[in-house]
Fold CaiB/BaiF CoA-transferase family protein.
Amino acid sequence: MEGWALSSTAALKGLRVLDLTRLLPGPVATLRLAEMGADVLKIEAPGAGDATRTMMQSSADRVAGRPGAFYRLVNRGKRETRLDLKSEGGRTVLMALAREADVLIESFRPGVMERLGLGYDVLRVINPKLVYCAISGYGADGPFAQLAGHDLNYIGYAGVLDQLASRDGAPIVPNFQIADLLGGALSAVNQILAALWAVARGGDGRFVDVSMAHCTYANNVVAQVALANDGTAPVAGSSLLNGGVPCYNLYRTLDGRWLAVGALELKFWETLCMALDRPDWATRHWSLGQAIAGPDAVQLIKDLADVIAARTLDEWAALLVPLDCCVSPVLTPAEAAHHPLFNAAAREALMQRQASDAESDEAPDGLSESRAGKP
């Protein structure tokens, strides 16, 4: 995320965004716009404001009287103000802001902005170029439009929660908000940028209706492929991408951690088998006719699990990651935060080590520490 944000910092410089959203989907959408250079003004109600100010707030933040990490994380890089949209004065101020804005994003239940006299049909009159995005659970209209919901409800309706299941079929409660972030935030950013492209080419603004349930459903691609093929969605452990093959699975290590094996293509599987000193396994691959979730696949999953269980996660990572065979450790959030992929200091340290190793390898024979060894 850090590298992505840095690479696109100025792309939306000068874009003016009004953020009336709360909680997670809308604030993350406007955060992504801010990371690309947009000027985002977060507008909160008087009083408590956005509920994420105190949601999951640490005791240290509570004592210090500052918003919690949740609020700070998803609202960084934005300006803030307070407006009472139920008052005439607050509505007048918002109208003035909307007249000069490029984008307005809100996440109220459908109809709330209309009842306040601030709906798209009103704002488009004073600013025909305005891109107005409404993020809701089930869309701006339809029989479910007024229902309350959260991420778990949306992924439940979309057929996604059923796919996030253990082998006994019991669904899990994911700690990654799929509908909020994929169906809500990302879909909103995509559709807003598409609408802005039309405006940039001389068109008018438009109303962007983002239904988190519908957008999540649209992204449930693999399950829809299975439905198209035989009319049934895959259960856990029965298909190519949910545990039905040895080359794409999770394996417990000696220290109780997990190793992710994603050697889906034959070349990666062959490399892995050679590294494990099991060349006889190389031909037992789905692309060569091994039946997905069939007896041979099930047996090989067990055999591979026994091999992986003999070493720790760090040992396997040290052996297999450099071979580029799509094998990786399953990191904790704390480990991910300090990994070179996501941590600038760790990345810089790794690059320096790599540069030093490269210089050592290029040294004349007899002088290379990597060849001669340390005394």
Remarks:
- Confidence is low (pLDDT under 50) at residues 1-7, 366-375.
- Strands lie at 16-19, 39-44, 79-82, 103-106, 131-136, 207-211, 248-252, 258-262, 327-329.
- The longest helix spans residues 178-200.
